Structure formats: structure tokens, C-alpha cells
Amino acid sequence: MSLYRGRFAPSPTGPLHAGSMVAALASWIDARAHGGTWLVRIEDVDTPRCVAGADHVILQQLAACGLLPDEPPQWQSQREALYRDALDRLVAAQRAYPCACSRKDIEEALAAQGRPRVRGREAPYPGTCRDGLHGREPRAWRLRVPPGTVAWTDRRLGTQAQDVEREVGDFVLRRADGLWAYQLAVVVDDADQRITHVVRGEDLADNTPRQVLLQRALGVPTPSYLHTPLVLAADGEKLSKQNGAVAIDTAEPLQVLNAAAAVLGLPVQRGTVTDALAAWVRAWPFLQSAP
């Protein structure tokens, strides 16, 4: 039995588009190239952004392209108890604390420190509630980030490093609206599902140092990471539903797969979907890069 366990974890904010299909195909190929198990996890904890029925459309799109998970799909919305237990453990270990700050509070605190917000980037948390709420009502829960640089090696991007305390600060684990933050949910899910290899879009690479810190705080393994190239929109930004990405049309699945494969540097295939997938598994360039 292979020790490799990978996953594709889409958010059901709409059907898969060209960009998300690249990550789906790459994660499937990587699992198959290493004789491993491939899972699908629907990341639906951010309920206000989820579109009713999109999860089932995504599963149908994957199936039409021959990308079938080896175990039944799971939904984050059904895993509340796991997230609550993880937060309780962090609080008991004094690694998490309540925060009363609004976004306006954070921006004002940063301005007072002479650290104006950089446009297009999330404002780093200035640590206002680290030593207590000072009589204010708690809104969220944050991880107490230790000082120092977090270094990790991406199988495609190479050596990466970030000073999370300086660039991000103590980050949110449970939001002010009561929803679980992506960082906590993904770390808990990967650990619970025994994920050994994470293959996802390059736009998520910046999240990795925070997730490594959470993995260390919870005492769970850190997977191997590979971040894939992004599909860009006409304006040069990452292709997304917000800037006009359209749903893939699985009526021609080989065409969809060839487009995704081209982004990954894989050759165009003709014939059946099954034959194309098998050829890409044989041609996968990252086989020797995974432990």
C-alpha cells in the first residue's frame, strides 16, 4: 500500500474554470505518478461565498474528465468538531488567544506605529490583543506566531522563506463571524486525512508558512508542497471567477485536459481521455522531486 496521499480541495464558489482545472489535473497526475491515493475535499467553510449546488457540479466536471477520487469526497462543513478540538488544544497550550480588533482598529494601530497598509496586501496584525482584551469583547481567535523565519522547500519553486510575525502577524483561526478560517481548516483536514503531498496553485504558496506554523503548534506532520503555474486573465491577474473566468465545458473533456496540461508543460495528447491521462502520468516531471 502506497504511503502517498494527495488531494484536490476546491471551494464551491462556482464550477471549475481553467485555472482550477490545472490544480486538479496536477494533483491527480502527481498521485498517480507516485502510485498514491487521490482525494477530493470540498472546502465550504466560507459559507457566504459558496454557491448552492456548485459542489456537485465540480464533482461531475472532475468525473467527466476522468479524475475520480479513490475515497468518497468529504465536505469541510461536516467537520466542525475537528476544528473546535484543534482550537481548544491551541488555547490550552497558550498558542491561541481571543482578539477584539476590527479591521479599522488594525489599520489605525498600524498607522500609529508608522506602518501604513500596503495596497493589495492584507494588513499584518500589530499584536494589540496579545496581552489581553483590556475590557473589550472578543471577536475572533488568533494564533500566537513565534518570531523568526519559516523556511520550506517547494518541489517546483525551490527554497522559500517568510518572516510570518513581521509580514502577517498573529493570524486568524476563527473569524469574527464565527466561521473557521481557511488556515486552521486546511491544516486540520490535511492531518486528519493523512495527506502527505499537497499540489495546488501558486497563489496559495504564500499561505504555506502559516500552515507550517500551525502544523508545528498542533504537532502534526508537514506535507510536501508543489505549487503549480497560474492561468492568467487578460489583465495579467490570476484567472478567477471575479475577473471573468468561465466554467469549463466538459462536453469536450480532452480539450479541457489538454489546455490544463499545456500550463503544466505537458505535451498535447490525442485519442481517449484514459490514454491521455496515462501519457501525462508517464511524462510527469516532478516524479523524482517527491520524498
Explain what the structure shows.
The protein is an alpha/beta fold and 291 residues long. The protein has nine helices and ten strands. The strands form three sheets. A five-stranded parallel β-sheet has the order 3-2-1-9-10. Strands 4-5-8 form a three-stranded antiparallel β-sheet. A two-stranded antiparallel sheet has the order 6-7. The two termini are 16 Å apart.
Structure keywords:
5-stranded parallel sheet; elongated; EC 6.1.1.-; ligase
| Count, helices | 9
The string of secondary-structure elements, in order, is EHEHEHEHEEEHEHEHEHH
Report the radius of gyration as a whole number of Å: 20 Å
Profile the largest sheet.
5 strands, parallel
Average pLDDT taken over every residue: 92
Low-confidence stretches: none
Distance between the termini: 16 Å
Label the overall shape: elongated
Helix coverage percent? 25-40%
Structural class, from secondary structure content?
A: alpha/beta
Oligomeric form: single chain
Q: Tally the beta strands.
A: 10
Order of adjacent strands in the largest pleated sheet: 3-2-1-9-10
> How much beta, percentage-wise?
5-15%
Motif ('HIGH' region): 10-20
GO biological process, one term: tRNA modification
Family: Belongs to the class-I aminoacyl-tRNA synthetase family. GluQ subfamily.
Motif ('KMSKS' region): 238-242
